[in-house]
Design goal:
The protein is mostly helical. The protein contains 18 helices and no strands. The protein has a domain of 83 residues. It starts with 17 loop residues before the first helix and ends with a helix. The relative contact order is 0.05.
Length: 327
């Protein structure tokens, strides 16, 4: 046997075989040659990783296919490492959609959970891998109902502020008010200051009175973690906030209206001065005629914009009196 040379499946100090190294580094031709000489695809390293785990982690779809379909020992796609992760976990976490597609075609079990009770869908949602999320829920829509008390894909996506993933999950039929020991997805989004995700969840009709395992509502959580985002989210929950964009648009529109009317007023003043009107006559003319017209024009313009909020700004802030005082 000494003349036969080294074993093709001998390992280094990390438990890597030559096939591990070739798969990890993307050497497709070497992978094929090693398999030709009966290298095993089912040898795990010291952490339980098989060559297919490493190829999936790297996102090398060609090598993943080779490991599955070539050689004397076809790679078992559901093999788990020491953290109970399959190759599908590795590919989903890093957003390697082509590898995910191949593994799903090879009937990899997407319901397998790792040591943290995370499925591949959970990891894709957690890291915002939108394309992978779409692929998995299309192939296995029932996964959205296979949740634990620890988390759901919706909770994980909300926690990290992945708006697009949250929307996809909700559009696919996931219950917006599903609960874990941490409460609803709204608890997660609010706790981590994800304002835009909070907006999406509120628009979808999430129950804001849901409590976590300690009996706390979302508002209770926000009180314990005061910050600018917490105040903004609390205002949203209480229905007292307008979107920043809306407020900026309203302010810009009204400032433009006020500026235009002031310009007209100054022109009128200049004309009156040239005609040598007395101050009393000028004041009477402006108060009875021009400012009344200014108020009317402003309100009509704001009504045309379709925004009741803008109209309220005009009536409540007293701009008419302020303009006259200025003059």
């Amino acid at each position: 046997s000494i003349w036969r040379g080294p074993n093709i499946n001998c390992t280094d100090s990390s438990g890597y075989t030559a096939l591990h190294h070739a798969a990890l580094n993307g050497h497709k031709d070497i992978v094929l040659k090693l398999l030709q000489y009966e290298a095993s695809t089912n040898v795990a390293d010291n952490k339980g990783y098989f060559p297919i785990h490493l190829a999936a982690w790297r996102g090398d779809v060609d090598i993943v296919k080779i490991l599955i379909h070539h050689g004397p020992s076809h790679s078992r796609v559901n093999e788990q490492n020491n953290e109970n992760e399959t190759a599908l976990h590795c590919a989903a976490q890093y957003g390697h959609s082509e590898v995910v597609a191949v593994l799903l075609e090879e009937l990899t079990d997407p319901t397998i959970r790792n040591n943290k009770l995370e499925t591949p869908l959970d990891l894709a949602a957690l890291y915002g891998r939108l394309r992978v999320v779409k692929m998995i829920i299309k192939a296995y829509p029932n996964l959205m109902n296979c949740n634990t008390r620890k988390h759901t894909p919706l909770h994980l996506a909300a926690r990290n502020g992945h708006k697009a993933v949250v929307q996809v999950l909700l559009e696919a039929g996931m219950d917006v008010s599903c609960q874990t020991e941490k409460g609803s997805a709204l608890h997660e989004a609010a706790l981590f200051g994800k304002v835009e995700v909070v907006r999406i969840l509120l628009e979808t009709g999430i129950d804001t009175n849901i409590k976590d395992s300690l009996g706390r509502t979302v508002l209770d959580i926000l009180k314990e973690h005061p910050s600018q985002q917490s105040l903004q989210i609390a205002a949203l929950l209480q229905g007292k906030a307008y979107s920043i964009t809306h407020l900026e648009t309203t302010e810009k529109y009204y400032c433009e209206a006020v500026t235009g009317e002031l310009s007209k007023l100054l022109d009128e003043i200049k004309l009156c001065q040239e005609k040598e009107y007395s101050f009393e006559d000028l004041s009477h003319t402006l108060s009875d005629h021009y400012l009344e017209n200014f108020s009317k024009v402003s309100e009509e313009d704001l009504m045309t914009s379709g925004s009741q909020t803008k109209l309220n700004v005009v009536s409540k802030m007293g701009y008419k009196d302020n303009v006259f005082s200025y003059i």
